Amino acid sequence: MNPTSKRISAAVLSLALGFTLAGAPMLAPVASAQISITAGEASTVTLGSNVSLTINKYDGLPVTDPADLANLAPLDATFTIEKVLLNNNLNTLAGWQELSGYTPTTAPKDTAFTPISVTTDATTGRGVVRTTDDGTIIDGTDVVDPTFVVGAYVVTEVAKAGYSIAPPFLVTLPFTNSTNNDWNYNQVVHPKNQADITVEKGVEDLGATIGSTLNYTISAPLPAGNLTSLEVLDDLPDELGTATNIVVSTRINNGAPLVELPLIDTTPVTTGGTDAVPNNLSIVFGELDRAELESRRVGNPGLELVVTFSAVITSLPTNGTIVNHAVINLPGGLTFSTDDPNDPDDGAQTHLGDLIIRNVNNEEPAVLITEGSATYELWRCQANGAGGFNVISQVSAATDPAGPAVDTFTTTGGTITLYGVQAIDWVNGAAPTAAIGQDLCVVELESPDGYELNPEPTQVEYVDPPVGYNMEADVIHLASDDVITLPATGGNGTMILIGAGVLVAAAGGAAAVRGNRARKN
């Protein structure tokens, strides 16, 4: 091989290995069988040499510094090794040139080769495939297969529950050391260690309705090492306006206080918020801000990136649910999302429905009171243990699907329908607590003419059979003449009697106070 051919061959080999180890650090091989390339030799690749492939797999976030691997827990993962079908052997330049045109997905498979399966050891995270047992003690899974010889192979990780897999990659046996062009028949690879990173998307939406503001939180753990890239993306649903009040922070763990990150070379970008333009929030972190995140990550393995923002509900969802997902792109092409195809209830969700309030009488069955009108408020409420409800916080709703939301609602013809009412049992992305109020109640302010005001909050219930998150409340009214029979003096006489009762009660209270004072003296 003349010097020119040697340089071409090395360049082609470098390209081929670019598919193999991009983003994955190389550590020392299990054993070395290095042969120096000497100018003038026809080829230095020996097709009959024994080869080995060592796969190290770890549980944790990706790292860019090999030294960080020691801090990660080993992981048992299964890999399938398939041989690439080449028309030319790797002891020829033509073989390397042929290989350089392939990627892990386009490389043709040698159907005459039986794929090899290896599962890395759960204790060491290591799995080794080799041509023969040469006496070397393997600290991990050891697969000996005489068909595993010089050539190119596609390595594919098998899906493992709870983990995202590394993309397929190419390995060549042998490969060259880029420093001295020595051939090495023992390859060591570290497929990108990828725990099933959970991107959390939370929402604070107590009292949500059209026109109200939702407050979102996106959080995800940060990898150690060099953050060569970092993006946070949020494609807001059509029912929301443009993201506002965007703040980037970190926290040392979930539940810890937020520490704001003053952005230096990062500018959150919002687009759309109209029917014509997608409503997106994009945060592409600049080099200086990534460096600050790296420094915060040192010594804080649980460090999380947190993005908070607000958005207004501009329209009501046709299916009753506003779902908002987020995506975080980490170095090495790793992408994590809150959108899990196996979980229909993932992401940050706000549930809204219609509520129909009816004025009914006390008969069995109850009859709609169509005369007059009644006025109501809507409250979060909580059962008081005595058969009734205590109101906690007032909520708004709209009497028209297009809004706006109002605080009081007046019936017409005995009913009124409210739109954009937050679901009874879903607040802030979870079942509501007693402090928030685990129920909705209707409180009457004015009753229909001829009927008494209902003195108790009326519980709101889902319609039966269910229709989305639609709800109903029948407020029972007693006819005024069923409650009290006025004396001959009429209403004024009644007020005189009530007033007299108040005076008697007041006198009794005053006497009680005097008695308490006398006893104390």
Automatic annotation (TrEMBL):
Pfam family name, one: Gram_pos_anchor
Annotated transmembrane regions: 495-513
**Signal peptide annotation:** 1-24
Can the keyword Disulfide bond be found in this entry's annotation?
no
Q: Which residues form the Gram-positive cocci surface proteins LPxTG domain?
A: 486-521
Tell me the protein's name: Surface-anchored fimbrial subunit
The UniProt keywords, alphabetically, are: Cell wall, Membrane, Peptidoglycan-anchor, Secreted, Signal, Transmembrane, Transmembrane helix
One GO BP: carbohydrate metabolic process
